[in-house]
Amino acid sequence: MFRGIDEVDWASLRHAFGSAEDVPGLLRGLASADPAERQTALDGMYGAVHHQGEVYDSTLACVPFLLALAGREEVRDRAGVVELLVSIGDIAGAPDDPATRARDALRARAEDFVRLAGDADPAVRRAASGALVRFLGRPAQVLALVRERITVERDDRVLLALAESLGLFAQRYRLTDDAHAAEAVRLLTELSGPPYDPGLRLAALGQLAGCAPDLLPADLVPTVVRLLRDRSGQRTRPGHPYDCPGPDTLAGRLRRLRPSDEEGSRLLRTLHSALGSRVADRVALLCGQLTSPDPLDRCNGVWMAAGLFREWRTGHAEPVTLIGNQLGAEEGRLHDAAVAVLVELFELAAPAADHLHTLVTYRPELRIRHGERGAATLGGPLRALAGTGDARATPVLAEVLAGPVVPNDLGLVIPHLGRAAVPLVPALRRRLARVPLDASDTHERAVPLLSAVAALGDAESIPAVLRLLRGMPDGLRRRDAVTEAAARALGAFGNSAREAIPDLRGLLDTGCAVAAADALWSVAGDADAVVPVLLRELTGAGSGRRQRAAAVLGRMGPAARPALPGLREAAGSGDAPARAAAACAVWRTAGDPEQFLPVLRSAWVEHPHTRRTIAECVSALGPAGAPLYDVLRAELASPRRHRTDSAGHGIHEDLVLLRVCREALTGQGHP
Hints:
The chain is an all-alpha fold and 671 residues long. Helix content is 63%, strand content 1%. It has helices at residues 23-29, 35-49, 57-70, 78-88, 98-108, 110-116, 122-135, 139-152, 156-173, 178-191, 198-211, 220-234, 250-257, 262-275, 279-290, 295-311, 317-325, 332-345, 353-362, 380-387, 393-402, 414-417, 425-433, 442-455, 462-471, 479-493, 501-506, 513-524, 527-540, 543-556, 564-571, 576-590, 597-606, 611-621, 629-637, 649-666; strands at residues 14-15, 18-19, 368-370, 376-378. The chain has a two-stranded antiparallel ribbon with strand order 1-2.
């Protein structure tokens, strides 16, 4: 297996973390008799040699040895090695890139995968199925092999992989070899009906949705839901294999995080992905999943609902109600999934608010979550309830604040409650006044509380805020972050915080200059002191500070006229967020949008993360913002969220953007 391995100059080759001299040990570890050593070696291959899907010169050098391992029946866990090879060969690259050379090497050894597709080990057969389409260059041979394997195969999971291979084949050859692609589609159509197993029929429907959607049955959703029920009824439940203890390695932990019914999850995820913008069908399918008698089907439905909500703005009410129904589930995995998704939704979780309120009322142990390192955080059900803005969260939060353990992140949910959180002000103020000035966790304790009292406009908190601003020692971890949060809070108090003016002036020559200048303008309206500082930050600081400086100048309006030359220059160079903020500031300061309207329109389309900045500018301008009303109307009419790359934060960002757009238009009589 390892003939010639010591002749490779591994030290001269590279992987994600430098020299590849440790790779021979990883390769030998894959052949170990010890399961933990094998998993650790596979961790290393994915973690360094094939890090985040990259292919290095050391990855290319591994291919012959990985192929040798895959072909030796005495090697345990060969399926993992085959999966690794398929992943390595699935990366596109330039002609001379290691990725292209690795793919060419695997194509040259395609017959190895033909043999593996008939291996005695079903896990190996399953892993090798996708390799036939990827590496065997003759479509007629590929199709004949897949057809033959479907005929003789008796393992359900391998059959599912073969259906996926047919879908990949149809996608790959539909433009260059229509006849063979059509035959693959015909086979998928055949597999999608009786007498085949419900799981295989689901897999075939998912592949058809991606490569031949016009051939899907007219009653697609009822068919899929019925097949899902049939599959669940046939499935024996010997336990939850991924809940079993195993080696504490990366691969082992990832396995334990997978859904209990990973196969079902993949089947339905494929179908949802292929249906894409057919949101009504996807919502109906989710409702079928979320009302299944099988908790594993419902759990998969919860996670797939999260994917839909992150991408699309419509159709959430009924699935959210059904997700709320899962909060009483006895199966912990289902309950935890429902909570995790509802936390992401903020006001969209309102249909589940009654269930969340019941949970935090009658199960007080869920109000606080204790992490592995002992740190307490607000429990998911209470965070989700507060995120909806439901006033019923306030008395529960009051009980938490009065208890012996108060999570540091409690203050972060206060802004979502708005004025409903006012009864919490005295307790928040007292807690802020007791934050230690020199502790290692001062930042974690102080910043959420500062954001809370600022959101509630509690001017009586000013002494506690000034105590933090004045008393923290130099060198304290994340001291500047606390100082900036304190300055923002003082700015929120406006003229009531005049006693803080000397403190804010003293920060104008520090790393917190932008936040201090913003607060000083809000408190004292002193443009002469603020504008030169913001101009300095606009021209000499990092991108984030330039953007924040431009935003403050924009909020100052005509008072920032001395900064116009610098703002115009900033609007024409730098990254998109800084350019957009500067262009908005010019508009708000000079009242003339013509020069920078193209900049703002371009940024809106090409850089969605600038949209909130631009929408807030239009809103602040009132009727003068009319030149961009069409952009805001188009945003409100779009069914897709403006960003789908922000994971759990994307939904909240999108909801804020929509709210700003509506306020800008309805406030001016332009619905």
